[in-house]
Amino acid sequence: MNIILIGPPGAGKGTQAKFLEEKRGMCQLSTGDMLRAAIKNQDPLGMEAKSLMDAGKLVPDDLVVRMIEARISGPECGNGFILDGFPRTVPQAEALDAMLARHGKHLHAVIELVVDDAALVERVSGRYTCAKCGAGYHDKFKPTAKAGVCDVCGGTEFTRRADDNAETMKTRLKAFYDQTAPILPYYKAKGLLRQVDGMSAMTEVTAGIEAVLG
Ligand code: AMP
User: Fold this and answer.
1) Most exposed among 3, 49, 132, 173, judged by the fewest C-beta atoms under 10 Å?
2) In the chain, how many H helices and how many E strands?
């Protein structure tokens, strides 16, 4: 099964993608994670993206389209893929359609996580990640069991995203409403769009997604 998770920053796309990856063996393709990895590795591609990402603006379409195409037919996606953070513009959605046709694949559903803007800044500004294994936490909603120690791997170093702050969130939300939200009618017209309440508890959101996937 191949799906897209769509929603504003902080809607829970990454968290839900990880659940699906574990439960169904699908692969999570997160353009944000790929770009952050490229920055960490000091790839030229990452360098091109960094200042835009730090400012909360979208990076050029062709850059993310190329990154997705390189992965979409990989062996790790044999049980289907979850696109998280892609597509983010109508041209990206169109490029995805062309790419899927080239690879003999198709989308089964586009799931919109519906959330209140007011909750997003709090969700995003409290999140942090284990630097060793990548497990995600939140100061208020999901702190580590023991302060400063990762529940999963025992790591003691954590990172916070440079763009996870109230100021950059304004630009990121504007990018979502101006550039990404127009994708919703695009997929609605194709009969693929499903909505799931992203404000409920994490397990309930997962159940809502599972209900869509059947
Ligand atoms: P995310 O981790 O999905 O919140 O993405 C973090 C940042 O990476 C965004 O604010 C953009 O600067 C960039 N980015 C990620 N995915 C895309 C995309 N599909 N199109 C354009 N920019 C993207």
Assistant:
1) 132
2) 9, 8
Mapping DSSP to helix (H, G, I), strand (E, B) and coil, where does residue 158 land?
Answer: strand
pLDDT digits (tens, 9 = 90+) for 22-72: 999 999 999 999 999 999 999 998 998 999 999 999 999 999 999 999 999
Task: With a cut of 90, say whether residue 210 has pLDDT above it.
Answer: yes
Residue among 117, 128, 122, 121 at smallest CA distance from 161 = 128
Residue type at position 144 = T
Report the C-alpha gap between 123 and 145 in whole angstroms: 19
Best residue among 58, 120, 160, 178 to mutate for probing ligand 1's pocket (most ligand atoms within 8 Å of CB) is: 58
- The backbone region for 104, taken as left when phi is positive above 0, alpha when psi lies in -120 to 50, beta otherwise, is left
Question: Token pair for residue 197?
Answer: 């309440």
User: Does the CA dihedral 23-204-191-28 come out positive or negative?
Assistant: negative
Q: Is 124 in the pocket of ligand 1 (CB under 6 A)?
A: no
Distance CA 136, CA 123 (A): 12
Mean pLDDT of 78-90: 97
